[in-house]
Amino acid sequence: MNPDCETPSHFPFKVIARIRSDFPDKFGIPRQSGLLKGLRSSIRFEPEFRVADALRGLEGFSHLWVLWIFSENVRVGENGENRWSPTVRPPRLGGNKRLGVFATRSSFRPNPVAMSCVKIEEIRLNVVDGDYCGPEIIVSGADMMDGTPIVDIKPYLPYADSVPDALGGFAEPLREKSLKVEFSVDLGAFPAEKLDTLREILAEDPRPAYQKDADRVYGFKFAGFEVKFKVQDEVLSVLDLIKI
Questions:
Q1: Going from the N-terminus, what domains does the chain have, and what CATH number goes with each?
Q2: Comparing C-alpha atoms, which of 55, 68, 73 is closest to residue 21?
Q3: Considering Cα of 8, then 67, then 171, then 21, what sign does the dihedral take?
Q4: Exposed e or buried b for every residue in 87-107, given b needs 16+ CB within 10 A?
Q5: Residues 12/95, Cβ–Cβ less than 8 Å
């Protein structure tokens, strides 16, 4: 091969947008996209890409592929490179078994790139909100923390992207049954329009798979509140909702 024509080993990416979501931290975020149908987020574009024409034709699609960066899980080595390991311990297996990184969706990868399939709820071409002025895509089912950098979006193509008889590997039997959710706290201050989504998040059991202590009180931040809860005998009890 002509050395002058060799493919470069590094490719620069631009952040084209960022997600706006109700999750300021990683804890509590759904483990995969599409699990919580009522979870709304928005995609807001960086200044260079706030061009309505870039979304022309997108209104004909129902879903998107979003390619984004695991910005909170980058492990930087001494020379500034992203550190990675060929094997990881998937949390859904209790953290006790190692599998190849390319056989998992671990966030610790050679390149910290993730993808999510989300539903398009609304496309707004001229949003004015504080310092933001430009197009916005309202989506449901996103599994991203607020501010997550997005490097590309692509339309979902049902005829090519859907594989009904695909195999799910080790993850197939790990779909757990939902927990029963009970609130032992006043819900008056919590946004009523987000209550059903909070119930969905809690029913999916947001605890790490390797932490199942019935006496432990867990907490995560959602929609401007810190949610305190514990789980006993498949029942999740919300103990407190603290306004942040």
A1: 3-73+112-161 (2.40.30.70), 176-243 (3.30.2310.20)
A2: 68
A3: positive
A4: ebbbebbeeeeeeebeebebb
A5: no
The amino acid occupying position 241 is L
Label residue 150 exposed, middle or buried (CB < 10 Å: 0-12, 13-18, 19+): buried
Q: What is the pLDDT of residue 89?
A: 81
Q: pLDDT tens, 3-61? A: 566 777 778 889 999 999 999 998 888 878 888 888 999 999 999 999 999 999 999 99
Report the C-alpha dihedral over residues 122, 29, 17, 51, rounded to 10 degrees.
Answer: 0
- Confidence at residue 178, expressed as pLDDT on a 0 to 100 scale: 84
**Burial environment of residue 17 by CB neighbours within 10 A (0 to 12, 13 to 18, 19 or more):** buried
What confidence score (pLDDT) does residue 188 get? 86
Contact status, residue 242 vs residue 225, Cβ threshold 8 Å: yes
Q: By C-alpha distance, which of 188, 199, 153, 191 is closest to 38?
A: 199
pLDDT at 74: 59
Contacts of 40 (CB under 8 A, 6+ apart): 121, 138, 139, 140, 197
Report the distance separating Cα 69 and Cα 72, nearest Å.
8
Question: 153 with 42: CB under 8 angstroms?
Answer: no
Assess whether pLDDT exceeds 70 at residue 174. no
Angle at 11 between CA 10 and CA 16, to 5 degrees: 145
Are 218 and 230 within 8 A, CB to CB?
A: yes
